[in-house]
Recover the amino acids of this structure.
């Protein structure tokens, strides 16, 4: 039995979530290898080699893996699939983009966003925005899986796995990279942060995020998130969205400010350890799941909170 | 160019989902069903491409029960030209859906397929990518902007770090994200007109693909309930509680 974990990275840094996906792989059992595919990404392979309990790290470097576009990346993963019983990747946008393509090429059903491993062929995953949890058994010869990282504890970092270079597969040449506009922020990454503070439609503008949310975030060392309504309205970029169809977070502390608590939003944050809700409507559904609800006007409360911290 | 739009009939996004007590699934009896919201965005995008003179014909396809005709009629009322229902009462998994869609694509020869990024019932987020793989086409997932550029398609994608633009060779598969557009409501005259547009009903068996499920659902349970609902009276009390809890 062997499992391949496909690392998430940006050619420079390995994503924190990779260690969590490795621990999901270890729950499946057998030897765990990590694939690092990219361009100029040896430092990522070196970081991956430190993850505990890994047999080896496969490093594949080629210009056509620089942006991990789905078509060449899937072709590479499929070319390596022979030696493995399961292929796992974190359910990031890269994972969600490439793994179903891999699954279809191998003629297997992907098991999306697992939150637990029951046995090597049986997995647990949320459906209906997390309002139901299904346990599924796969009859496929190979398992292709994306992993919800927040549901697993990261593997240790005392490993020293060997790094082995593997050959690139050819580029199918179906797509090409044009550009990227990445959101720049000094704050912690949303899915890795210990504290997340999110703003909703009630904020009304980017300026109000700047004035009422960011200062509190910076005092707490928190990441900033948002509801769909705040993103749709253009107050903050798309990658701030927390929810069923955005990012899933599970920090120690989640503070929802001016967010009503639609099920699609709850799907992305209800596994947080402590939830605080600040909302002027005492009937807002967010209060039902909040450990500490504070009813009132956020434009009054947030400056008080900033001062009290 | 011809555009194919797969649309799925799913539980309406406003419905409070209830898990059946025998743990076999969720209760769908007498609940409101709708077109998957991401598929409405897909239909809207196809209609806009047609209005811009880029798309020539829009074919909506659904794999589902007889009643999925309602969602196909909605697509027709929004501006699709024809519809195909592949009728089945069985649960069809994304891989099998992709295989059926591939068969339809081979018959219809579209230049573009626009899927939703995710069905809000199974939350799988895989059908479009699988279809692209099976057809050997390029894919542009989680699209927030789609632009024809000569014989290529530029797709701006919502990714974890921000936005990414890729250029796709055609034919291609695109999957929609929330910011791609705001779907229109069908007008009453268009709803009336849609009743006369062609809607073919086919059987999965005529496509000669194996649609047997690969995943066996052992059980469906309720998520753990959170103990919430407590209120604090002031900012000072809140900060005190958070310090007590050791989270700040
Ligand atoms: C297919 C689909 C996918 C979706 N995916 C997501 C997702 O991933 N994430 C997500 O968040 N949503 C998602 N949604 C949207 C979701 O259904 C809700 O519409 C959205 O979460 C609402 O955002 P909101 O709470 O900011 O806005 P609203 O629901 O409008 O709530 C605003 C809240 O602010 C409060 N308020 C107003 N003024 C003040 C003030 N001065 N002080 C304090 N409180 C105030 C109000 O009482 C209200 O409760 C999705 C919807 C669909 C259909
Ligand atoms: N039964 C179906 N009929 C038509 N289209 C479907 C069906 N299932 C999935 N799709 C399409 O695939 C997208 C993604 O679905 P999923 O992979 O199940 O999350 C949906 O938004 C639809 O566009």
């Amino acid at each position: 039995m062997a499992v391949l974990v496909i690392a998430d990275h940006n050619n420079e840094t390995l994503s924190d979530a990779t260690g969590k996906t490795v621990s999901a792989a270890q729950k499946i059992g057998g030897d765990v290898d990590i694939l690092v595919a990219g361009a100029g990404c040896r430092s990522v392979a070196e970081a991956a080699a430190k993850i505990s309990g890994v047999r080896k790290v496969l490093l594949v470097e080629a210009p056509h893996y620089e942006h991990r576009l789905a078509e060449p990346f899937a072709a590479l993963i499929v070319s390596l699939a022979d030696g493995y019983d399961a292929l796992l990747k974190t359910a990031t946008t890269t994972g969600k983009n490439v793994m179903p393509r891999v699954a279809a090429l191998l003629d297997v059903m992907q098991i999306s966003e697992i939150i637990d491993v029951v046995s090597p062929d049986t997995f647990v995953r949320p459906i209906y925005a997390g309002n139901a949890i299904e346990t599924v058994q796969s009859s496929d010869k190979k398992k292709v899986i994306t992993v919800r990282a927040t549901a697993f504890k990261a593997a240790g970092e005392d490993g020293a796995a060997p790094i082995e270079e593997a050959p690139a597969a050819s580029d199918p040449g179906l797509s090409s990279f044009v550009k990227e506009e990445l959101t720049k922020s000094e704050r912690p990454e949303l899915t890795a942060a210990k504290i997340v503070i999110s703003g909703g439609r009630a904020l009304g503008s980017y300026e109000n995020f700047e004035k009422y949310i960011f200062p509190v975030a910076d005092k707490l060392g928190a990441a900033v998130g948002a509801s769909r309504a705040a993103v749709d309205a253009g107050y903050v970029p798309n990658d701030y969205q927390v929810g069923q169809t955005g990012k899933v977070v599970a920090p120690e502390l989640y503070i929802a400010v001016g967010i009503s608590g639609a099920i699609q939003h709850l799907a992305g944050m209800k596994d947080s350890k402590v939830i605080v809700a600040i909302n002027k409507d005492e009937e807002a559904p967010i209060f039902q799941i909040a450990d500490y609800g504070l009813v009132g006007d956020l434009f009054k409360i947030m400056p008080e909170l900033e001062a009290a911290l | 160019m011809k555009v194919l739009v797969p649309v799925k009939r799913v539980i309406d996004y406003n419905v409070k989902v209830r898990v059946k007590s025998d743990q076999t699934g969720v209760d769908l009896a007498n609940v409101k069903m709708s077109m998957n919201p991401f598929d409405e965005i897909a239909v809207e995008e196809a209609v806009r491409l047609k209005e811009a003179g880029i798309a020539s014909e829009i074919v909506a396809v659904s794999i589902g029960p007889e009643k999925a005709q309602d969602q196909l009629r909605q697509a027709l009322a929004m501006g699709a030209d024809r519809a195909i229902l592949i009728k089945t009462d069985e649960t069809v998994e994304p891989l099998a859906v992709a295989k059926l869609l591939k068969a339809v694509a081979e018959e219809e020869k579209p230049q573009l397929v626009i899927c939703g990024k995710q069905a809000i019932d199974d939350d799988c987020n895989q059908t479009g990518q699988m279809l692209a793989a099976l057809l050997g086409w390029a894919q542009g997932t989680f699209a927030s902007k789609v632009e024809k550029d000569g014989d290529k398609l530029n797709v701006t994608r919502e990714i974890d770090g921000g936005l990414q633009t890729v250029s796709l060779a055609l034919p291609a598969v695109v999957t929609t994200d929330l910011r791609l557009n705001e779907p229109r409501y069908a007008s009453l005259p268009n709803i009336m007109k849609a009743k006369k547009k062609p809607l073919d009903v086919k059987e999965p068996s005529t496509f000669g693909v194996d649609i047997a499920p690969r995943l066996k659902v052992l059980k469906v349970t309720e998520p753990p309930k959170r103990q919430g609902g407590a209120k604090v009276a002031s900012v000072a009390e809140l900060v005190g509680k958070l310090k007590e809890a050791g989270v700040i």
Q: What stands out?
A: The first helix of chain A runs from residue 17 to 28. Chain A is about 25% helix and 30% strand. Residues B 6-8, 36, 38-39, 42, 61-64, 92, 94, 97, 115-116, 118-119, 122, 124-128 surround adenosine monophosphate (ligand 2) (CB under 6 Å). The first strand of chain A starts at residue 2 and ends at 6.
